[in-house]
Each structure stands twice: as C-alpha cells, then as structure tokens.
Write a structure and sequence with these properties.
single chain, about 500 residues, alpha+beta, Aminopeptidase, OB fold (Dihydrolipoamide Acetyltransferase, E2P), 3 domains, four-stranded antiparallel sheet, 18 strands, globular, disordered N terminus, binds zinc ion
C-alpha cells in the first residue's frame, strides 16, 4: 500500500491514471491469492476469471505453452473513459465473476463481448500475451513484471493492448526504456487512446513506461545504475538489468511484428524528431517510410539496445527520437504521434489517418562535433537548421579564464541533435550533424506483415532469441559499453 500515493501522483502528472488504477487493482488481488510465487501478469488477470491450468509458470515464454492451452480472456475496457467511470468496474473485478457480467463499460459503446467467437471467415486469432488472451475487437490493460524481482517493491508495468477486429501485424510501442525520457510516454498515451479496436486491423501493444524504476526517480538508469538499453535481449542468469531485459524481450517484444522504441536525447541534449534504424535491413526501411516526412538517421544501434536486439531476432525495429530528457515538449510529441499514426495507416492497420500524404523521409548519416575545451556552451544554431562547413555552431567560454572557443561546422549538413546551454567538459558531443545519405545506401523496402509472427514466436519459445549474439559478447555491463554520450539516445 505504501507505494500507492507516490505512484499515483506521478501518473496523474502525466495523465496516465487510467492504467495505474487497473494495474494496482490487479496487483493487490494477486498478492492475496498467491503468496508463494513471483507475481505474474497471468495470475493478476485472474482476479475476475476462472482459474486456468499452468498459470503459475510465468517465467516460461508464452510460446512454450501448448498453443491451445486455455488462457483467461482479457476484459474489453473503454480506454478513453475518465478514471472515475472506470474505478467501479475495476473494484468489481476483485470478486470472481464470469467475464460476461464484468463488462461494465459495454453499455457505453457496443463492443463485442470477450466470449464472442472471432468471425469464422477471418483468421484473426486472439493475441496471447502476458498470460492472457486478448480477443479481436478488444482494448485492454495488462501488466508486465520482470520474472525475478523484489516482490512487493517492484511495481508491475502497465501494458496497453488494442487488438483489432481484423487480422494484421502487431506493432509495439515502447517508451521510457530510459526513465527520464518523457515525450515517448505521452506519445504512446495519445496513440493508444485514439485507436478503435472495432475497426482496426492487427494489434498495437503500447508500453508507456518500460523502466518504471528509473521513471520514479527521474533517472535514465535502473536502480543499480545500469542502462537497461544496453542489456537486450538479456540473460535470465545475468545481472539484474539483463534479467529485466530478458523478461521484457521474451514476454512482450517477441510478440511484435515491428517495434517503435521512443527516446529523447540524453544528458541535456535535444533531438530533432528523427528515426534511427539499420537501413541495410529492408523491413526497417519499410518502417521508416511509414512515418512520412520524418528525418531518418542510419545507425545499427549500440549493442544491447532494444531495437538492435529486436532486429537481430528478426523483428524490424526503429528508434523514434524526439526532444530532450526530463522535458515534455508539444512539438516533439505531436510530431511523434503524427508519425506513428501515419505508420499505422501505411501498415494497413488503420484507415482514417491520412496526415502526411506521401512525402518521402530524408535519410542521413551523421557525425558529432565536440567541445574542444571545457566551459559554458551557448549555441548559435537551432535544431533542424542546415549548416555549411565553417559556420559557427556555438561557443564554449571558460568562466574562470574568460577564454572563449568557437565550435565551427566541419561539414555541410543539418543539425539533428544538439547540446542545450550548459557546462561541458572537453570532448562533450555537442552537435549531431546529419549528412544526407546516398540513395544506393538504402535497401529497397520490404513489407512488414503478420506472417513473420510464427517464426519469431517459435524462436522466442526456444529461448534462442539473441542467443548467438549474447554468446559472442563476454560482458554486458555498462562499464564495457562506450560512454553514453557517444550515442546520444538509444
Ligand atoms: Zn533513450
């Protein structure tokens, strides 16, 4: 109970109270019902569902369960209802009752009952995720907890799911893998709460705050000061960060046909809204084209990043960078939302978002310009500005000696990211300059479909996801990684 007030106030500040109430409701029930094993989402959801066999084995990847094993059906919630209207049905969930009668929100909008069978002519199977079965035309909230965690202290991470009435790919949106990166949290909220399960094709899984530990402390890192985004796809026997990464990767990411991981700049740097992806991968290129008029930076991603691990597991993934840490800025959020809605349209999942026409993205390679001296940096350029070789980017002034040093561009390019005014050390990566990439560098795009789902799930089930990659890497500690400022995001 003691976790509740700070949790709630933090969420309220971000208008995310809806899912909090739900997640907490589940977790309290779960604690009463099951005190011997680590809490799992499957068990939490059973508060209002009949018990199904095999639900205690939450560490097992879902794909290892027999395909026909019964799972509790997720309740269809009206995600866009105000919190007050949802509190009553949430409380009622703690009393076991058949799913039919628990759809308290059904009167507000005619949604298919969870038990109604999917249309026979379409192969739209329920989405099996986190120990629950989400039927077509259902929006719901699930929760993910790392398989091994400090019970009673670690809070479950809310996972929003909208499963469309029609078949299609599963797109995953993840935010706040770095706990101090707020724009993505708001972006995921706006996207998820604007989807209509009754008309949508495929599914969208939205995790607004992957790194709850960091989020509560306003920190980029986990509580052990490791960077979660250097530990994917994780290791069930590794460090705490590796175990958390492993659990998230296998329980959530392995169910995705495509991933958009939302980030911001790091360490008082801000980014022009931009995608980062491995443009040698045709499916990743297809994803980047889906975002319409958005800058795209070619990068394979640091080892251990969620997007790189996903791509290596056969799941196309991009990072969407926008803005700076600890700041919510409307321009970054609205650009990101617009981009993702355009992507949903391009992937054939929604029909209604026609926001950007057909403008092509612009592809860049990039390089950093660094402060050569320490001091206070003031910039002369703005995000998105085009610069020419020799242009003054900013100055660094030593407050003790009053010596001022200029930073001048060594390239013709565009400012994709930059330091905010601050005190810098010599070598600080101050300006991220994009240089337009030649066309031949970009692989021809390849469709992203639900077809790859089976292969991915099989590989997740066998525990093989990322295994070769991990085996080749001796250590995954942050100490063995390049300094975070080398890659300002991701
Ligand atoms: Zn980040």
């Amino acid at each position: 109970m003691s976790l509740r007030p700070p949790l709630r106030s933090a969420y309220r500040a971000l208008s995310l109270t809806l899912m909090l109430v739900s997640a907490q409701g589940y977790s309290f029930t779960e604690t009463e019902e099951n005190q011997t094993t680590a809490p799992s989402q499957a068990e939490e959801l059973q508060a209002d569902q009949p018990r199904a066999e095999g639900q205690g084995e939450e560490a097992e990847p879902l794909a290892q369960q027999p395909d026909e094993a019964p799972l509790p059906q997720a309740e269809n919630l009206q995600l866009d209802q105000p919190i007050e209207e949802l509190e009553v049905p949430t409380a009622a969930e703690e009393t076991p009752q058949p799913p039919e009668s628990s759809t308290a929100s059904g009167e507000k909008r005619a949604a298919p009952q969870p038990d109604s069978p999917p249309a026979p002519e379409e192969q739209n199977r329920p989405l099996r995720l986190l120990g629950a079965e989400v039927p077509p035309a259902t929006a719901t909230r699930l929760a993910w907890s790392p398989s091994q965690h400090f019970e009673g202290v670690y809070s479950p991470t809310p996972v929003l799911v909208v499963k469309g009435a029609k078949p299609g790919p599963t797109l995953c949106l993840t935010a706040a893998v770095h706990g101090d990166e707020l724009n993505g949290i708001e972006t995921v909220r706006r996207v998820m709460y604007n989807l209509d399960a009754n008309t949508m094709s495929g599914a969208v899984i939205g995790v607004p705050i992957v790194n709850l530990q960091g989020f509560h402390r306003g920190s980029r890192y986990l509580t052990d000061r490791r960077d979660l985004n250097r530990h994917f796809p994780g290791d069930p026997n590794g460090s705490s960060a590796s175990r958390i990464a492993y659990s998230f990767f296998h329980e959530v990411i392995s169910h995705c046909n495509a991933v958009v991981d939302l980030h911001t700049g790091s360490f008082y740097r801000t980014n022009l809204p931009q995608l980062r992806g491995d443009l040698q991968n045709p499916k990743v290129v297809k994803l980047t084209k889906g975002f319409g008029s958005t800058v795209v930076l070619h990068s394979t991603g640091a080892k251990g990043t969620l997007r790189r691990a996903a791509v290596e597991a056969g799941i196309p993934a991009v990072t969407l960078e926008a803005g700076a840490p600890m700041v919510l800025d409307e321009r970054s959020v609205s650009h990101s939302v617009k981009g993702i809605r355009t992507l949903l349209n391009q992937l054939g999942m929604v029909a209604k978002f026609r926001l950007w026409g057909d403008p092509e993205p612009v592809y860049y390679n990039s390089t950093w310009q660094r402060a050569t001296t320490g001091g206070i940096i003031f910039s002369e350029v703005q995000l998105g500005q085009f610069v020419r070789k020799g242009d003054l980017l900013g100055t660094v002034t030593n407050p003790i000696t009053n010596v001022r040093t200029e930073i001048r561009s060594e390239y013709n390019g565009r400012i994709l990211g930059m330091a905010m005014n601050q005190v810098v050390q010599p070598g600080f990566a101050a300006y991220h300059i994009g240089i337009q990439a030649p066309e031949e560098q970009i692989s021809p795009p390849e469709e992203v479909t639900a077809d790859s789902e089976q292969a991915v799930e099989e590989s997740a089930g066998s525990g093989e996801v990322g295994a070769p990659h991990e085996a080749a890497t001796p250590a995954t500690d942050t100490e063995s990684q390049p300094p975070a400022e080398e890659s300002d995001d991701d």
